[in-house]
Amino acid sequence: MDYFLELFLGGLTRGSIYALIALGYTMVYGIIELINFAHGEIYMIGAFTALIVISVLTLMGMNAIAMLVIAGVVAVLYSCAYGYTVEKIAYKPLRNAPRLSALISAIGMSLFLQNYVLLAQTSDFLPFPNLIPEFEFMERYAHIIGSTEIVILITTTIVMILLTILIKFTRIGKAMRATSQDKTMATLVGINVNRVISVTFIVGSATAAIGGVLIASHVGMINFYVGFIAGIKAFVAAVLGGIGSIPGAVLGSFVLGWTESFATGYVSSDYEDVFAFLFLVLILIFRPAGILGRSEKNKI
Amino acid sequence: MIKIDEIKRAVLVSIWFMFLTFPIMVIRVNPVEHIVEWRWKNMVLVGIGSFLLSFVWNYLMKRKELGFKKVEAGEEENVVPLTRRILGEKRIYIPALVIFGIFTISFPFIFSMYQTTIMVTALIYVMLGLGLNIVVGLAGLLDLGYVAFYAVGAYAYALLNYHFGLSFWVALPIGGALGAIFGILLGFPVLRLRGDYLAIVTLGFGEIIRIILENWNEFSFGPSGIANIPRPPLFGIDLSVHGSTTYIYYIMIALCVFTIFVVNRLQDSRVGRAWIALREDEIACQAMGIDKARTKLTAFSLGATWAGMAGVVFAAKTTFVNPASFTIWESIIILCIVVLGGMGSIIGVIAGALVLILTPEYLRAFSEYRMLAFGTLLVVMMVFRPGGIIPNVRRTYKFKGVKNADKS
Amino acid sequence: MESVLKVQNLGMNFGGLRALDDLDLDVCRNEIVALIGPNGAGKTTFFNCITGIYPPTDGDVFIFARGMDKPDRINGVKPNKVTEKGLARTFQNIRLFPNMTVLENVMIGRHCRMHAGVLGAILRGRSTIREEKKAVEDSYAILEKIGLAQFVDEFAKNLPYGAQRRLEIARAMATEPFLLLLDEPAAGMNPYETRELDELIKQIRDEEGISILLIEHDMKLVMSLSDRIFVVDYGKKIAQGTPEEIRNNPVVIKAYLGEEIDA
Ligand SMILES: Nc1ncnc2c1ncn2[C@@H]1O[C@H](COP(=O)(O)OP(=O)(O)O)[C@@H](O)[C@H]1O
Ligand SMILES: [Mg+2]
Predict the structure, then answer these.
(1) ipTM score of the complex?
(2) What is the pLDDT of residues B12-25, one digit of tens each?
(3) What crossing angle do the helices spanning A2-32 and A193-219 adopt, rounded to 10°?
(4) Residue B52 CA to its chain's centroid (Å)
(5) Which residues of A touch C93 (CB under 8 A)?
(6) Which residue of B16, B58, B136, B197 to mutate against A (max A Cβ within 10 Å)?
(7) This prediction's pTM
(8) Which protein residues touch ligand 1 with a CB less than 6 Å away?
(9) Given CA atoms A165, A168, A172, A177 in this order, what sign does their dihedral have?
(10) Domain span at residue B11?
(11) Arch. (CATH architecture) of A2-286
């Protein structure tokens, strides 16, 4: 039973990380129908920036919690800046181009950013210090769940709540929802669509950066390629839940996290990804638009 | 004339990029030894570079917008793309074709074996590109797992040869057929999916095949792969490596010509038109009496056939296969060939394959930077020429008694 | 009179919304029938249900092909099969194949009357060549009849709006239907184009012997063309009859209150 619980919570942790990345995919897709292939790289850049900040601060001898907070804030800021810039360079000029062209542009961006970090930094795996403290009260449960996992779960929950508030109750959130339903109409009622798209990229990048910092502390190392792999997984999660739907992305991420965790725990970690993808296919066969996806509302 | 405004803009852009690249370009950390290295020089370089590039970018953007305006104003007659003008002019393109043919045939004798090997690789990608072009370019089905069929072909030859000693020429059609079967196998579950859902499922399919090849040691010999695959035999003569490379080169030329022939015939046929209609509007396509499921399955299986055959040639060329040759990046590169070349356009796809495969090869001198350059090329090409290098032109027909506006 | 289409108790639910409710309708051979009603009444949904795009929730759809005396029930039959059986339609929001030429658009209509498969296309044997040549000629002939011959090699997306609507009709005609379903064919046309359309539709009925069921808001056109009219509102049939009867029907006038009926 403990083993099951461990796998369950492990899946939950994984799922929440995927969710933080998947949100960016799904929000961008909801608004401009683009698979933002470079999104995983934004997450990677967030983690790298955090590592750089932490290394510099360590030299200055700062305490762990303060470092973590500062590194997190800087990582979020920089990821947002990258997300914003990538959109302006690689996607904005392609608003009216065939959709595949924008996809190829995104792939190019992804390659560019990977190699940019590879060349400017290193191709090796770098150790990422775990700055999340071990809580004493957690010791009793240490065989089931660690402190880092708890922090990940709590942070994810907070981010989700903030995001929900942003989208449901703020002006920009309303504008985002309107734009995702009908871009032309949104323009007609005076919404600045370009601004909405920029904000979407910024918000998505911010959550990805938080995910990046958390998973890097959890796993303990990063390199230039971690973004691509995590990105693909998160994208699978977004599709699983129904791309374009925010609750869908979260649900899809948990489902994916659990699938992987249980497949690894009970079968073999070699085939973890095979199970993940087979599960995806299975769900899409029965629900072609994903678990919470709206089926084509396209009126004929 | 460069205006003050533009300079101001360029300065802002340059400041922005200096800020943006600051942590990654300037600071380099070594967390193990707690060393931090500051590279202020890079910041200056980024500043100057982005300042200058900002002008280039603006200039290109303006040109692109000007092009759009011309099209809208109906002035496009005068700006018929050069490529299309050449292709439409018999006096130009027939001699060009002859020269190109002679060049192609004498290539192994003019250039070194190294060059020939690179060219064989490029030709394999031409074939892969033309095959994927059926699926993505014509039928509009976004397939991100195309490499799986390539792997199926390569492993088919490797394994059939290992266990049963089958020769290249027997394996070639088998590889194609297996590709087709796998194409249908993938096609069935994804029939109902649209657009990007299809993309992710095909991506998953490609990964599943690769992971199985990597882990199922008894079947595929795992990550270490299969070595000593024979090169294609020529009437039982044992060719030297050099001779064999030349021979494979000619085999690839023949296969490419065959592929072009088939794809060309298909795209102006009843089946090809159905693919394009499916790409353009799925619902209207069905309402016009086209069987959607069947049309999709033919596209998948025909596309996969070429990948299967290309896989067999690949195994014969490298004499070694392992799962590392069939990662998702391979699928992505093939997709880039199709879109960058010009979706649905045969010449475009050929051009795309040659550009994308040969450029990195000849950029080996700058080996570190070539993937960076590759990424940049993709973005820049798409931003400034979203239709690809040589966009597709539809066939036109001539009729008696009608004055046909000559658009060639 | 001999029926070509008979719809009984047709119902369609979208989740909680009942878009069609207990609808009866029939079309006879060589007849032009109009289906009218306010926006959102369920007219397009009715077309979608009989052409197989949505399977109806309840009711029956029967067709009577030429030379067939037995009714053929087509509920839930796939759209392409429905077209093969001889029903062809146009769409309210134009759905041409924008990046194909006008001729190719019509040739797609010929698809289900042709046979060449993949092998045929590759080998290009004599029968394939002959079939292909005939398809080009037939398609061209249809374009001439519809008055689009001057646009043959133009991309469909580059045609003027009115011509696009006519091309939809040409494409549907190419499938050799016995019943043509037109969804708001005059929408967006100017009075001159509408008059041409009026003649074209009559010509299709008279010369080709094709029955026509059309959805239209232009009452002048409806009154001039139709042999009979069905009126729906909120998915229910509220009236049926000759143009004369419909014009004076108080229920219809009430449903259209605010919308003008003049003819
Ligand atoms: N695919 C669909 N899903 C949900 N509701 C639909 C769908 N298609 C049509 N409807 C609804 O059915 C009703 C009838 O629509 P429609 O048939 O398009 O009306 P009309 O063509 O008479 O203007 C409308 O309320 C519309 O919103
Ligand atoms: Mg309607």
Answers:
(1) 0.91
(2) 999 999 999 999 99
(3) 160
(4) 31
(5) 299-300
(6) B197
(7) 0.88
(8) A 299; C 14, 17, 19, 37, 39-45
(9) positive
(10) 4-73
(11) Orthogonal Bundle (1.10)
